[in-house]
Amino acid sequence: MADASFSLLTGNSIETRLVRAGGVIFREGEQANELFVIKSGYVRIQVGNKTMADLAPDTIFGEMALIDNEPRSATATALTDVELVPVSEKQFLFLVSQTPHFALKVMRTLAQRLRTMNKGVY
Amino acid sequence: MADASFSLLTGNSIETRLVRAGGVIFREGEQANELFVIKSGYVRIQVGNKTMADLAPDTIFGEMALIDNEPRSATATALTDVELVPVSEKQFLFLVSQTPHFALKVMRTLAQRLRTMNKGVY
């Protein structure tokens, strides 16, 4: 599978945000101004009561609302204690414009989620 | 909603491909080396027997297999006579690297499809 790791964004010198297990990172319907890279721990993504994905370190989440300027499409909670690297909308647009590999990785993340969901329709 | 039109890629001087109503553009499981912009007509995207989307002019499809190098995740058929602009993998990577707006538009297309699918789980 194509590389979709964002480990380059979670270096030691970057400011992180800690969320304890069970804590809500964002809720469906909220306005958004940042996405997150998981530095350590696991994050659950839910729409209503349905679990859409459990995400591991070096993956991103929360990118959809930045991409299309709509409210959060899902709720994200910490499954374990998690360490997150927040990426602002401004930083996101800079990364997309300056580093094509970043843009492709974001696309791969979205494409993989669509494939996972497509498989659910059989 | 954020602009996700690809009309800039369907100018008059560009070579197009015509598919008659009912014709198959690609099938689920096939290897992929191009995506398409719809210049005129409507295209249906199906996974198995389920219709995932009916797409209008100035939208793209077939981008997922180029992004993650996996086989086609869905079947695309012409609902009406359609005129398509094929974009090769090489052209796609060039557009992503040289034009950040193109990358963002592809991301918006993927994000909108994920939102549409998320809504189906309630």
Task: Please work out how many helical segments of chain A DSSP would assign.
Answer: 3
Number of strands of chain A: 8
Overall structural domain count of chain A: 1
Poorly predicted sequence stretches spanning 5 or more consecutive residues of chain A: none
Q: What characteristic shape of chain A results from the CA principal axes? A: globular
Q: Under the CATH scheme, which architecture of chain A would be assigned?
A: Sandwich
Q: Would you tell me the overall average pLDDT of chain A?
A: 88
Helix content of chain A: 25-40%
Strands of the largest sheet of chain A, in order across it?
Answer: 1-8-3-6
Radius of gyration of chain A: 14 Å
Oligomerization status of the protein chains: homodimer
Architecture overview:
Two copies of one chain form a homodimer. Chain A has 122 residues and is an alpha+beta fold. The first copy, chain A, has one domain (2-117): Jelly Rolls (Sandwich). Helix content of chain A is 30%, strand content 30%. Chain A has three helices and eight strands. In chain A, strands 1-8-3-6 form a four-stranded antiparallel sheet. In chain A, β4 and β5 (50-55) form a beta hairpin. In chain A, α2 (89-98) packs across α3. The longest helix of chain A has 20 residues, at 100-119. Chain A is globular. The two termini of chain A are 22 Å apart. In chain A, 35% of the residues are buried. Chains A, B: It comes from Bradyrhizobium macuxiense. Chains A, B: This is Cyclic nucleotide-binding protein. Chains A, B: GO terms for molecular function: DNA-binding transcription factor activity. Chains A, B: Residues 12-113 form the Cyclic nucleotide-binding domain.
